Amino acid sequence: MRLITVTIVGSLGIGIPAAWAAATLARGERPGRAVAGAFIMAAIAAIAIPMILHAAAWEATAGKFGWLPLTQTATRSWGGFAGLVACGWIHSIFGAAIVAIATWHGTSRVPVSILENASIDTTPLRCWWTIQLPLAWPWVLAATILNASLAATEMTVVDLYGYRTIADQFYLLYAVDPNLTSIATTTALPLGFAVAMITVLLRRIGRRQTDYRGEHLAGHTSSDLFERPSRGEWIVACSILAFCTLLMIVMPVTGLMAKVGHDVIIDGDQRIAHWSISRAVHELAAAPKTFSAEYQWTTMLGICTGIFATLVAWPLAAVGRQHSRFEFLVDASTVILFCIPGPLIGMLIVQIFQLPVPGFRFLYEMTILPTVLAMSVRASTIAYWILRSGYHGIAENVWLSARLDLSLGRRVWQIDRRLMARSVAIAILTAGIIASGDVPVTLPVAPPGVSTVGTRLFGLLHSGARYQEAALALWYLGFIGLGITLIHTLTRFRSARIK
């Protein structure tokens, strides 16, 4: 509970002011809108980066052998980044990106009629904090519940610093021989979070989207209703976004860059720590060969999982768009599956392939199918919500015409296949990126000889982040950056086509 409390307080304290700053700059001229857009992209990138990579970056920055606590004599001068402090900080930074995106989106969904009335006698600053933010409480609460669930069920970060959560305890004590009591204890809190998220998010937000869909399409944005931000507001907002971007992206990446070139020279009886560009170039050039197996397995599992998860999610999203009750059941089921701790999912897949069914033993020992199935549980949830959003973005007249004239199968092949092509591509890329770094699921079910970047980092970071781990993480971060750039390009192209 202490980790959950620290995560909630930290993520809300950083995320909500960042959302206000982004909304304020979005009302201004093009430079301000560019800064706000860059921050939103940075926050999305921070969410897409796996938790183990966040841990590697901050471990290289402030952990054991990190460049911040090392003096010029290469000895530790501060050891405070450990235990609850380290776990709470990493979860808070990751959660702040979730809160910022959710709050920014929720406040932008406030009905235009309310903003028009508020613009008469209320300043933009007061309107955002007293009207838009309270009305966006379902999004903020949903993000808070999600962060609490991640803090309770995530095991890679806490295991690095010896701080135990229920998922970590299950993996350490009951993974070999799980029993009903251990499973019930492990899933009770996450399922409680899932029920709360279903109640708050799906019902409340879904009803508001239905009630105000036409008003948003026909109305104006807040930049049309309120005056441009003052110079003081502009400076404060830019400072907040710069600080948040520094914490979410710049400082961790700088930590990895500093660590990959970190070197120690022995001069007589003295050890002198310094940064060497030749050392950095050498380690970055050697990493693809040194960790070639990890990169290959990560790429293969990411691609296979992304495709499989999208193939599972696409029919559910297609049928759900046509039947609202079925859509609500799928919405609820995906939220529940996402909140189940990763080690439990992995062990469930292991138990299934231990059944005396012909071919199961061969598939478990000689193929990556069990690993792909385990990684697809959460990845399918991500793919489903992306495809669900894509289906709800189709114009109502086009949707009704296709529904009346064609059967479900013909509609999906003739109409949806073209309209949803970019949403499908985005779903495959996003699900693959998220799955490739899902270490809690991968650890119990990965066959011998299969090591991903995430599992290798998880093993190496227990002794601290050194130059090899930093090089491994930087290449992985570069691959993720390319994927995010491609997703952003597809998203912008799709938005332009809709307009």
Mean pLDDT: 80
- Shape designation: globular
Widest β-sheet, arrangement of strands: 1-2
Strand content: under 5%
Number of distinct helices: 24
* Structural category: mainly alpha
* Low-confidence runs of at least 5 consecutive residues: 71-77, 208-220
Note the gap between the termini.
46 Å
Percent helix:
over 70%
Largest sheet descriptor? 2 strands, antiparallel
- One letter per element, helices H and strands E, the order comes to HHHHHHHHHHHHEEHHHHHHHHHHHH
How would you briefly describe this protein structure?
The chain contains 24 helices and 2 strands. By secondary structure, it is mainly alpha-helical.
